[in-house]
Specification:
alpha/beta; about 350 residues; 12 helices; five-stranded parallel beta sheet; about 15% strand; single chain; Aldehyde Dehydrogenase, Chain A, domain 1; Aldehyde Dehydrogenase, Chain A, domain 2; globular; six-stranded mixed beta sheet
């Protein structure tokens, strides 16, 4: 199968997904194989929501819109242009996926197939309904994908390379278990925002998207703020307020109540507004409904700290303060070439 065929298949998948990228699902004309797959995917969305309480319709549609917008001919060709993709001896690449946000492992799935390899997927039990259906759509759109995509719930065997994502504990297990295979092993990372007190109301409102989208469960969610000494959090809390309906979601509310009780019983200092707590803490990984913060006095010293601890950080959000920063509100809209952990998966796949 030629690269152009693979690109065309994913472009058609993006067009199919565009029907589900808004809360109001709309069946469109001229979508290939729509009569065969449209109703089935609607059912899978319902199953995903029922099975995982964090997968609300809003968050599922947001994730799908991101992939629909990414899977265009222009984006795919821009992404792949720097590479010489000519795999003459395809390998079987295993992917062990996380399940914290909808379709979180799709980029790895796309990367393996677009580079010309075969894929063996072991999904998280938290996100197992959407991808197999989309894989079936790909196989019908481009029959040459048949036999190149497989899923398993058992121990993975017979693979040539692996891309595995998990917690810090499971990553250590992965590193030992896959020590004799080419691998990309990902563990916990968190994202941070660096503020200087000059942010506009719109900047901070956009930051709220980085904090609350997917309930803060993604590695690209901001879980830690760096703020100048004597920073006044009033403007920050005001900008967060439009997310207050999030407390109506039972799973989020339960986490908020639990973590608030822990902080109060431990007599930790924290500020809260009824649906979000902020706590001074040097850690990067904050619990659900909590954002940690840390003061800084010198931006250059902070840059040195962030560089020294970059293995713990996925994204840095700021406005004209940090090199390779991400604009407020954009952490959950990565481009195809924004690789997790800054590890180029296409380069890895072309070298195995």
């Amino acid at each position: 199968m030629q690269l152009e065929q693979r690109i065309n298949a994913f472009v058609k998948l993006g067009e199919f997904l565009s029907q589900f990228s808004n809360k109001e699902i709309q069946k469109k004309e001229n979508i290939e194989l729509n009569d065969m797959f449209f109703d089935g995917f609607k059912h899978q969305l319902k199953l995903a929501e029922e099975y995982n309480g964090w997968f609300t319709p809003e968050n599922i549609h947001f994730a799908i819109k991101g992939w629909s917008d990414s899977l265009t001919n222009s984006n795919l060709n821009t992404w792949l242009k720097p590479y010489a993709i000519n795999v003459s001896n395809p390998k079987l690449v295993a992917i062990i996926m996380a399940g914290n946000i909808p379709l979180v492992g799709f980029h790895d799935f796309l990367s393996v197939l677009i580079s010309g390899h075969h894929v063996l997927v072991k999904q998280s039990s938290n996100d197992k309904h959407l991808l197999p259906f989309l894989a079936k759509y790909l196989e019908y759109i481009e029959p040459e994908f048949k036999g190149k995509i497989s899923f398993t719930e058992d121990k993975i065997t017979g693979f040539d390379a692996v891309i595995a994502t998990g917690s810090n504990n499971t990553a250590r297990y992965f590193e030992y278990y896959f020590k004799n295979k080419p691998s990309i092993i990902r563990n916990n990372r968190n994202s941070v925002a660096v503020l200087n007190g000059q942010e506009t109301e719109d900047d901070l409102k956009n930051l709220s998207e980085d904090i609350f989208r997917y309930y803060g469960l993604g590695c690209r969610n901001v879980s830690k703020l760096f703020v100048p000494e004597n920073y006044n959090f009033e403007a920050f809390f005001n900008a967060m307020y439009h997310w207050h309906p999030i407390i109506e979601k039972a799973k989020y509310a339960n986490n908020y109540d639990y973590n608030k009780a822990v902080y109060l019983m431990s007599e930790f200092d924290m500020l809260e507004n009824g649906f979000l707590m902020i706590k001074e803490d040097k850690s990067y990984s904050s619990p659900i409904a909590t954002v940690f913060y840390e003061y800084y006095s010198d931006i250059n010293q902070l840059k040195e700290k962030l560089n020294a601890e970059k293995s713990q950080i996925q994204c840095i959000v700021s406005k004209g303060l940090i090199e390779n920063e991400i604009a407020f509100g954009n952490t959950q809209n990565p481009q195809l070439w924004d690789y997790a952990d800054s590890v180029d998966s296409i380069e890895f796949l072309l070298a195995i």
